[in-house]
Write a structure and sequence with these properties.
heterodimer; A: mainly alpha; about 65% helix; B: mainly alpha; 2 domains
């Protein structure tokens, strides 16, 4: 994919950051307003697809970091799981940090909705990582079909067929 | 914290945690990866077996995700359950055990089988997701979560079907699976949405307690039956199933068999527990019988002519799914007719459940044997194999056990279950046992063909160096073989302690409803 004109890249430079801020807002206010981890995460993750469209494939591949997105995904998933486990011994996913129920010493430092907003943040991180990876892999596979790049080191099926 | 109370949560938590952590485990090297893979699969089996034991004697396990208490189904004076609810009775436990055992056997097998290939970071998470999806389908107590878990399982299924993406057939099979399963998923979602629109709830127990017999309910029942029958691979909606069975890695195919069983569980649950009045009318019973009989006959006829060993087994899966559908159809018809026919219906259901377990273990083992042959010879074509019994005695022996079990040779387990299904099927229509016999004979013929082509005869020059499968693969196969032999040696014990309870739990929807409504 070739980069688009300077008009597009300039608009991207200015507005893409607002999009991230808006996405984070949607993640953090999921317990009050429509939205939440998945929706906000999807908004943030569109950043990478905009990079791809505005700056083209070459720049995209130098900016995108597979490992970083994978780590974001892992951290999000594990945090989500851990917040779910906080519900024990009542039940998995029980909102044990909510102030009316909890009364834990940490209560005043935590959001009043308890684990719900923390889980939103966790899901948000997971979705940002996962959807960015989806864009990364989809573009990667286009490159693979076009140029054969990226297949190196893959030990697939056909090599063992006799 | 009483671990027993939280067993239903652990059942899905363990494979999910396994799935999330697998990429980390893979990066720590081969040994850590293998230990992690087998350990999490073993823990899943442990949870499945513990649930099976906990449901003995007619207990129903209820678990509310996010509740103040795990058993509080209707908090704050609600008149129906609203939260994510797991509800497992003896009937669901049978399928849970099948899935978790097949997942463990497949994991043991895959450790060696997948060693030569890259892509473990993708393989392991998808494998555990598939396990979690199938277990969730059998454990969930509401329609929407059934949809969610079915989606989880099908996404993992088509991911794993297309795992070898350098192989065009695998990509095509994955794409086909994705396309049709997404259509099915949308139909299931529409059905669930229609129920929610009318009854304001998606909880299966609550729906069962208020279900009417109007036009909308008929449409919903038709949608759910077609979707679940499609997912079990019933004729004429079986094409995705045979392709997936042929192209997915063998350890996964063993699990795919039980995933189709989880859909079968959904079908039976919907017909017997949620829509007993509508489904008991005769039409649904005959529909299941016709669909089942056609699956049996066409599945096995297609199997006989195959030359690709995995595709052959895939057609056998279609054929065996036909037995299960027929058994449940006969059960519905016989119970609906009344007048002394109930005994036949009950026998048919028990036979169907027994056969469900036989089917998952025997077909799972057959797929693993096919994988073992492929591992040793590098081909799936029966025409290119020959004389392998000398080099691979264990694989040959286990193939015989599985084939005899599934084709119903006395004294193996398949004989008992088929006898029960067709003994009671005779009461509905005499053609059913005849069809069953023909199917069994053709099944046996196709297995004789496989055995003769692959294991007997003079050794092929190219395959002189073929060696028996490594210990990990043999262990996975051995586990299923032992389970088959146990079912063969102690059918009475299993019938008395497992399948009797399961059939009775299925035929008491009032208990299922009461448990979902918090004992009220």
């Amino acid at each position: 994919m070739k980069p688009l004109s300077v008009v597009v890249t300039s608009v991207f430079d200015i507005f893409a950051w607002f999009m991230i801020v808006f996405g984070v807002y949607v993640i953090n206010n999921g317990h009050n307003t429509p939205g939440g981890g998945f929706q906000g995460g999807a908004i943030v993750a569109t950043f990478m697809s905009f990079v791809l469209v505005a700056y083209g494939g070459k720049k995209f591949m130098t900016w995108a970091r597979e490992g970083a997105y994978g780590a974001l995904e892992l951290i999000g998933l594990m945090a989500f799981f851990a917040f779910g486990c906080l519900g024990f011994p009542n039940a998995f996913f029980y909102n044990s940090l909510a102030i009316p129920h909890g009364g834990t010493p940490l209560s005043e430092w935590l959001p009043y909705c308890g684990t719900i907003s923390l889980m939103n943040v966790a899901v948000g991180a997971e979705v940002v990582g996962a959807l960015s990876l989806v864009v990364y892999y989809m573009y990667g596979s286009i490159r693979m079909v076009d140029t054969g790049a990226g297949m190196g080191g893959e030990r697939g099926h056909d090599r063992f067929d006799r | 914290m009483n671990v027993r109370d939280h067993l239903p949560a652990f059942l899905v938590m363990v494979p999910l945690l396994g799935s999330f952590l697998s990429p980390v485990a893979v990066s720590f090297g081969k040994t850590v990866r293998n230990v992690f893979f087998v350990a999490f699969a073993a823990l899943t089996l442990l949870a499945g077996a513990a649930i099976c034991v906990a449901t003995f004697g007619g207990n129903i396990l209820v678990y509310v995700m996010g509740g103040e208490s795990f058993a509080l189904t209707m908090p704050s004076g609600m008149s129906y359950p609203v939260r994510i609810l797991f509800e497992i009775d003896a009937f669901g436990a049978v399928f849970i055990f099948c899935v978790s055992a097949a997942a463990f056997a497949g994991a043991l097998f895959s450790v060696n089988y997948m060693e030569r290939f890259s892509g473990w970071k993708r393989f392991m998470p998808l494998y555990f997701l598939l396990t979690a999806g199938a277990l969730g389908m059998c454990a969930t107590g509401d329609m929407f979560n059934f949809f969610v878990f079915a989606e989880l399982a099908s996404i993992a299924s088509f991911g794993l079907t297309a795992f070898w993406r350098d192989k065009p057939e695998a990509v095509e099979a994955g794409f086909k699976y994705m396309f049709v399963s997404q259509i099915a998923a949308m139909l299931l979602l529409i059905a669930t949405g229609a129920l929610y629109g009318k009854y304001n709830a998606v909880n299966m127990g609550f729906l069962a307690s208020v279900m009417e017999s109007g036009t909308m309910e008929r449409v919903v029942l038709a949608l759910i039956i077609s979707v679940t029958a499609f997912r079990c691979g019933a004729f004429p909606m079986h094409t995705h199933m045979t392709d997936a069975c042929a192209e997915a890695p063998c350890g996964v195919t063993c699990l795919l068999v039980t995933v189709s069983q989880a859909s079968f569980y959904g079908l039976v649950r919907v017909c017997y527990s949620i829509f007993p009045n509508l489904a008991g009318g005769g039409t649904v019973g005959w529909l299941l019988i016709v669909m089942g009989s056609m699956s049996m006959i066409f599945g096995v006829m297609m199997a006989v002519i195959q030359h690709d060993i995995k595709r052959l087994m895939g057609y056998h899966s279609v054929s065996q799914a036909g037995y299960l559908l027929t058994a449940m159809g006969v059960g519905l018809l016989a119970l609906g007719r009344g007048g002394g026919m109930e005994g036949y219906g009950l026998a048919s259901i028990k036979g169907g459940l027994f056969h469900a377990m036989n089917y998952s273990f025997c077909n799972g083992l057959l797929f693993l044997c096919a994988g073992s042959l492929y591992y040793a010879t590098g081909t799936r074509g029966l025409d290119k194999m020959g004389g392998l019994a000398r080099n691979m005695p264990w694989t040959a022996a286990m193939f015989v056990v599985a084939a005899a079990g599934i084709s119903g040779l006395p004294p193996f387990n398949g004989f008992v279950s088929k006898w029960m299904i067709f003994g009671s099927g005779f009461a509905v229509h005499p053609i059913l046992p005849a069809l069953g016999m023909v199917t069994s004979v053709l099944a046996l013929a196709s297995f004789v063909k496989v055995f003769q082509a692959a294991f007997l005869g003079p050794p092929r020059a190219k395959l002189i160096a073929a060696r028996e499968a490594p210990y990990g693969m043999l262990a996975g196969m051995g586990l299923l073989a032992v389970l088959i032999l146990l079912l063969t040696l102690f059918p009475g014990w299993f019938m008395g302690n497992v399948f009797d309870n399961a059939a009775e739990a299925l035929l008491r929807p009032q208990d299922y409803i009461r448990a979902a409504m918090g004992g009220r």
